[in-house]
Amino acid sequence: MFARSPKLPPVSRYLLAFQACNIFNFTIAVGAPMVLLARHLGADAAKIGFLISLASLLSALQILTINLVESYGYRRMIIAGWTARACSLLGIVPLPLLVGIVPTPILLWTLFGLLLLFSISRGLASGAWFPWMKDLIPEPVRGHYIGVEQRLMNFSQMLTLLGCSWFLGIAPAAWQYSALYVAAFAAGIVSVRFLAKAPDTRPALLPGHRRRSVFQIMMKAWEVWKYRPFRRFTRYMVLYTVALSALPGFLVLYMRDILNWTEAEVLLLQALPMAGVLVTAVTFGSWSDRFGSRPLLRLALWAQLSIVFFWLGSALEIYRVTHTVAGVILLFWGASTVLHVVPQVRFMLGCSPPDEVTVSMPLFNMIQSLVGGLSPITVGLLLQQFSGGRSHTGFIAYFALAAAITLAAHYLLSQVSEPKAVPTRRMMRTLLFSWPMRFFSDSTRN
């Protein structure tokens, strides 16, 4: 019934091994465990919003490293940045042990500074990732590779959160938070070792290459922005990011402070979206190669909008959310997220001007990173106006605003063209009728 999965190039094994370790490192460093650590150190909702924003906000720095990427090569750039960011986590290790000894503001400023270093080193190096991947992974199997990558990354993230849930338990001690960041440092160093085995697709300095001035980069970025497919897709992603990028992080606070669930319960539930990704990622990657990106993006938007409305109903206390119901919703959230991420990456690679990949990719990521970084700051400040983020009213306002912006993003998506994509209705007919009927017909013949 389905075509055989395309064969990935051999280099993909090193990229995938890198991502497995990298996600373990990243999830602990700036994910749900970091939010719980910040609460342990005494941070309020506004401060947590700033901490959540750092990784995304400082990804915008990659636009400053275009000359370095072009002269040093992709692999060298990423290895340097990822080694530096892993080492920055060692400074976080003693912080939980100093609670009650060192004043809370000093602990929080130290955590902020170390995560700032983590995010700066990541941001400066990350501009090399997508151009490198575009060179290493051929276009005909790119959607399939992204699906496999998403499955592996989320499997790693799920195991990380399940392990953190088991390790922290109900009332975690300070040393347990410290141990998590030692493990995150180790995983970061191991990830770099895998990455070093992948070939660098660009020499240290191309023949005839000239370093571009800041003005030349700005002018080239303006030319890229005037490229209509790139501009329209970027505007859509801006609204999408504003609407939903902060949701996973603040759901941790909602479950802990509003629903009064324990740290172990929160981390266990936070692992379930990854399970949804594991079930669907490779399939959605193949679908994006077959149907195109836009119909999958549209389907993902409607699914995620329904989830936002579910949490809005919970905040309005229309119904009581149990652990089981929350688990099902988060499983659905994981599936809908990968339904968006896979075609999003594929679309981004396809709508960039082909001759300016080292400018268009950082420009796109810079815009999305700035918006994604400002979003949790805004949400944190919004929640802080309502009892420090510990009341239903603040979350009602946030969920309602997220739903409205998601609807606006759906409108912008209708203005984005993809010539080779099939209409959404035809895709749905194929998924709901043609393939099941073909499967039934093949089964009866056998």
In words, what does this structure look like?
By secondary structure, the chain is mainly α. It has one domain: Growth Hormone, Chain: A, CATH 1.20.1250.20. 75% of the residues lie in helices and 0% in strands. It is built from 19 helices and no strands. It has helices at residues 12-30, 32-41, 45-57, 66-72, 74-88, 104-125, 129-136, 142-168, 174-195, 214-226, 228-244, 247-258, 263-270, 272-291, 294-315, 323-351, 357-384, 392-413, 424-445. α1 runs parallel beside α2 (32-41), α1 (12-30) runs antiparallel to α9 (174-195) and α15 (294-315) runs antiparallel to α18. The longest helix has 29 residues, at 323-351. The two termini are 13 Å apart.
The percent of residues in helical segments reads over 70%
User: Based on CA inertia axes, which overall geometry fits?
Assistant: globular
Proper CATH architecture: Up-down Bundle
> What is the first-to-last residue Cα distance?
13 Å
- Number of distinct beta strands: 0
- CATH top level class name: Mainly Alpha
**Average pLDDT across residues?**
81
| Residue windows where pLDDT falls under 50 for at least 5 positions | 203-209, 438-446
Fraction of residues in β-strands: under 5%
Looking at the structure, the CATH topology is Growth Hormone, Chain: A
Series of secondary-structure elements, N-terminal to C-terminal: HHHHHHHHHHHHHHHHHHH
Oligomer: single chain
Annotation field: number of helices: 19
Q: From the helix content, strand content and strand pairing, which structural class follows?
A: mainly alpha
Q: Major sheet, described briefly? A: none
Q: CATH superfamily membership, which one?
A: MFS general substrate transporter like domains
How many structural domains in the coordinates? 1
Indicate the radius of gyration in whole angstroms: 22 Å
